[in-house]
């Protein structure tokens, strides 16, 4: 066979666990040459892995610049894997613990991951036009039952040194199918190399490194902004209890054992923020980063991706903060975990930023008006003849002990003079994405509201509708 990968990973036979019933067995697979996947385009492959209930085999692979009518993310290609999954449920689980013969395979999209170079985690791509795609969730009803189909993952188009497909079942040991063997990575060593690490009972997260760029992945930062690029990695610490026999054939049938689980940072798209000068919170640009919106921290790897933020180029203090909502899952307490804070650059906040014109004592989310003034132009907007643009600068804080998603544009209704809300902004200026996360414990967030008035006025009158108050507010306009 001419195919490099096929020659290098000739089949070693059935997974050892199939014959012995062992908890799990590593089947060595080596593919010489770290650039094999960047040179070859596809072919046969013999790679497999198993736990006590399931046997997975990858029989073919292909690298494609397009699949099912879809292009991969920039800087990536599609890795298409032909997967077979077989039920190998052992007799001792059926007779000793009354396990059913059928095995449920939960969502491959949520529980199956591709680990690249031991440090980047990719989830399965969902493509409506992929007629050969393996079903995302399914049941293998009897011993020997098998299902086959394709799995598609994005992979970097260069620099691949190792690849492994991993599936984390809720009841059995994690299942790893090594696709390309590179230098062995030890999660603990990578973790120790991190610049900063924070942890709670569910996950540990670390900043491996960060930098500022005027251009990133071929994209210039918006005017007045700069890209903050953070290599963020983590590891799951969540464990669930399982029957020890389900992981180890030699275990006591009455014993329980801790089963490490993947810990997903839920709502991570809005909760991971670059906090600038203590009061401005920015969320990621998902299209330019490799860190998924809701990162999945694997329990057996120190891995993550690049988090990319557009922040003001004149930022002084820069802090990466991971906020936490209430997690809901079996075995997880509903406590609100403290935020994880990574100080990237020290800075100070000027006194002008805390001055105020008015205070709306809305409990538990009071609003402070800091400034407002008439403008001829702001961002991409320009006042036409007979019109005036007015910018209102304000902040909202949260005096409760629980953070939450908030909106501000629907709280202010302009009553006089005639006009309309044009847009809401953050410092930069960049458009404010609503709803936004308002942290607990009096950590304010600044925002700006831009209005277009039909005529010049001396003051503005608003109707404010909040949580605990509804009131009229008249503000003198700074000409």
Automatic annotation (TrEMBL):
UniProtKB keywords: Signal
Record's signal peptide: 1-25
Name of the protein: DUF4352 domain-containing protein
């Amino acid at each position: 066979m001419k195919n490099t990968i096929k020659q290098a990973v000739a089949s070693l036979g059935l997974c050892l666990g199939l014959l012995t019933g062992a908890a799990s067995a590593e089947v060595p697979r080596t593919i010489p040459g770290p650039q094999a996947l960047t040179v070859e385009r596809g072919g046969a492959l013999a790679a497999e892995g198993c736990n006590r209930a399931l046997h997975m085999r990858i029989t073919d692979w292909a690298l494609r610049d397009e699949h099912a009518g879809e292009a991969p993310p920039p800087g990536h290609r599609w890795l298409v894997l032909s997967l077979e999954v077989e039920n190998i449920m052992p007799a001792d689980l059926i007779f000793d613990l009354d396990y059913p013969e059928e095995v449920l395979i939960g969502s491959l999209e949520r529980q199956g991951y591709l680990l690249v170079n031991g440090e980047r985690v990719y989830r399965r791509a969902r493509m409506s036009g992929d007629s050969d795609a393996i079903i995302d969730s399914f049941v293998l009803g009897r011993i020997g039952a098998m299902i086959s189909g394709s799995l598609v993952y994005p992979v970097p188009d260069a620099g691949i040194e190792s690849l492994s497909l991993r599936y984390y079942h809720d009841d059995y040991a994690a299942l790893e199918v090594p696709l390309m063997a590179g230098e062995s990575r030890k999660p603990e060593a990578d973790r120790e190399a991190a610049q900063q690490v924070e942890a709670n009972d569910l996950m540990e997260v670390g900043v491996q490194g960060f930098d500022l760029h005027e251009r990133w992945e071929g994209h210039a930062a918006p005017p007045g902004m700069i890209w903050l690029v953070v290599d963020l990695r983590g590891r799951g610490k969540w464990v669930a209890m399982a029957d020890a026999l389900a992981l180890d054939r030699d275990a006591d049938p009455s014993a329980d054992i801790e089963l490490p689980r993947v810990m997903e940072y839920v709502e991570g798209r809005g909760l991971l923020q670059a906090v600038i000068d203590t009061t401005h919170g920015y969320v990621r640009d998902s299209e330019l980063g490799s860190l998924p919106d809701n990162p999945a921290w694997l329990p057996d790897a120190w891995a993550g991706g690049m988090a990319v933020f557009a922040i003001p180029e004149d930022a002084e203090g820069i802090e990466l903060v991971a906020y936490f909502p209430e997690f809901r899952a079996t075995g997880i307490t509903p406590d609100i975990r403290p935020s994880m804070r990574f100080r990237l650059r020290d800075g100070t906040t000027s006194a002008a930023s805390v001055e105020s014109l008015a205070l709306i004592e809305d409990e538990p989310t009071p609003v402070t008006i800091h400034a407002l003034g008439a403008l001829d132009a702001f961002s991409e907007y320009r006042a036409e003849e007979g019109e005036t643009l007015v910018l209102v600068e304000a902040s909202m804080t949260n005096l409760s002990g629980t953070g939450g998603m908030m909106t501000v544009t629907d709280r202010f209704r302009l009553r006089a003079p005639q006009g309309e809300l044009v847009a809401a902004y953050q410092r930069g200026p960049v458009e404010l994405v609503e709803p936004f996360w308002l942290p607990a414990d009096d950590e304010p967030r600044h925002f700006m509201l831009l209005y277009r008035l039909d005529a010049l006025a001396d003051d503005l009158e608003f109707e404010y509708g909040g949580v605990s108050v509804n009131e009229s507010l008249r503000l003198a306009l700074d000409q």
